[in-house]
Amino acid sequence: MQPLINRRQLIKGLAAGTVLSQLGPLPTLASENKRLFVDGLCFLPDDLADLGASGIDAYLCDISAIEAMKQTDGTTNYKRTYQACIKSISAAKIRVEANSDKLILGLNANDINRAKQSDRTAVFFQIQGADCVEGSINNGLSQVDEFHAKGLRALQLTHHYGNQFSGGALDNDASGGLNLPLTQAGEALINKLNDNHILVDVSHSSPQAALDTARVSRSPIVQSHGAVRALVNHARCSPDEVIKAIADTGGLFGVFMMSFWLTNDKVPTVDHYINHLKHVANVGGIDAVAIANDYPLRGQKNLLKLNNNNAEGVKQYLSWWHSLREKNVLGYDIEPEHVVIPELNDIDRMNRIDLALSKAGFSSNDRDKIMGQNWQRVLSDVLV
């Protein structure tokens, strides 16, 4: 009798090329003229013409809204609260449905097919921080159900700093870097998200919380947008053990466009970006590699206004950067000198990345996976 294996084992086996005979071919959409482009994180554009100009077929669409919260010590914290995010997701849903000639509200992976075939863009709503459901921790996390009903399909556990569910990448004490774990409430949240077929995103989580999430989750997890700590030793970048743990769930790791987390060299280049993709492939396998943005479709707005002058553009980040340096957070001792890779801070960046991958020696099949098929596979597995 042939032994039974679960979906996670199948995905891991696929990465190793050992169990292809046990699973039929996954659907692919790359046409003869253009391969599938799926982005790990972007936003609804001000000008919907940007959708077609970008060439992106689908993306995780951050519809978060931030509320300023006054703290007891007099400082202000910015959280993605329930009230702010329930309004923002409702408004985003109305806008998507009002522009159905250009947009599709992504509810499952079949919507990527529909978008590709009809020259539209599928957007899968994502919120960058589970603060928005903290109010229902003692009520079966019912707020997760509310957001799911409005179209939420990916939820990030936290943003930079920890919350009631998860440690954050930038949490610290006097000696820096606490690396706080997933909490008991966090484990309940992972189970709730699995049950609701919502993608779990560990971007901005502490390494320990990401490892805990990989252990707890019954579905693939992702880091939708991030970078590699082995290349840039920074708290916002992920160590190899996290990359591998994510890959072992059948998930993926998206490399983003924020250049101060891609290289400490004075001049950021496309090669620096490709190096992060190569490293993820070496650690997690080619099925774990993906593209992310974390800027608008056109690119980082202020840098575009400055004609990608990094020396001027980086100034807007220095006050925040120095405040974390004072707290001894890993990596903030090095002064940032840039914000973007100029060649990729452009609406045509996906085509440019695809070409760079080709020049770097990636096969056409591997480029298909990196540019979109890995995202399609994960969304097919989770959003059922």
* N→C terminal distance: 29 Å
Low-confidence stretches: 1-32
Number of helices: 14
Number of strands: 11
General description of the model:
This protein has 384 residues and is an alpha/beta fold. The protein is 38% helix and 13% strand. The protein contains 14 helices and 11 strands. The protein has helices at residues 7-16, 49-54, 82-98, 110-117, 142-149, 184-195, 207-216, 240-248, 270-284, 301-305, 310-313, 315-325, 349-359, 364-382; strands at 38-42, 58-62, 67-70, 76-79, 103-105, 121-128, 152-156, 199-201, 221-226, 252-255, 289-291. Strands 1, 2, 5, 6, 7, 8, 9, 10 and 11 form a 9-stranded parallel sheet that branches. Strands 3-4 form a two-stranded antiparallel ribbon. α9 (270-284) links the parallel β10 and β11. α7 (207-216) runs parallel beside α8. The model is unreliable at 1-32 (pLDDT under 50).
